[in-house]
Design brief:
By secondary structure, the chain is an all-alpha fold. It contains eight helices and two strands. Helix 3 runs antiparallel to helix 4.
Length: 182
């Protein structure tokens, strides 16, 4: 399934559910931003189509239900490479419309990092790690966040098995509960 098809399916679901922004987790706007960038980098959308669609994606979450219906139909036309012949414009909202000149003049924000990009980031940039702990982790062969997540302990000590000192055997690992009296 290409990126455009991945966009069209949730758009259809969003229309069926009344444009309540519940078709994808996290909201349709952020979902669209990710997949529009993928469609653009894969060559499925031209730069102009991407810019128009990205403006729609940015304003989708803040729009009213009626505005969302128009935005979905516009977005479908853009990504299916159809000209806008219907002249559909979103109805004015009771508040100031988020689709005014200001929305069109805003620069398109940089796309968010994907999970793969985070996993390839240096481990020192993970929260709470820093450069000094990053150097220590590199001694263990942990260079990226992905390496850190896939670094498993070499053993697991089960400390729930508590034994008395008289029950201990040589070479056995176990937990002992004792009181030292001096």
């Amino acid at each position: 399934m290409n990126a455009v098809e991945s966009i069209l399916r949730p758009l259809s679901l969003e229309e069926k559910t009344g444009c309540k922004n519940l078709s994808v987790m996290g909201g349709l706007g952020s979902f669209l931003s990710d997949f529009l960038m993928k469609a653009h980098t894969d060559g499925e959308l031209t730069g102009e189509e991407y810019e128009k669609a990205a403006i729609i994606a940015q304003s989708y979450d803040k729009s009213s239900t009626d505005e969302r219906k128009c935005l979905i139909s516009r977005l479908k036309r853009i990504i299916s490479h159809s000209p806008d012949v219907s002249g559909n414009t979103p109805p004015p909202s009771k508040k100031s419309s988020s689709l005014g000149k200001k929305a069109l003049e805003k620069p398109i924000s940089k796309p968010q990092k994907t999970a793969e990009a985070y996993l390839d980031s240096a481990v020192q940039y993970a929260k709470g790690v820093g450069p000094s702990l990053g150097r220590l982790l590199s001694r263990l062969g942990i260079q990226t966040i992905g390496d850190l997540l896939s670094h498993y302990p070499r053993r697991y000590d089960d400390r729930s098995n508590i034994r008395k000192i008289t029950e201990l055997q040589e070479g056995e690992y176990c937990t002992v509960l004792a009181r030292v009296i001096s």
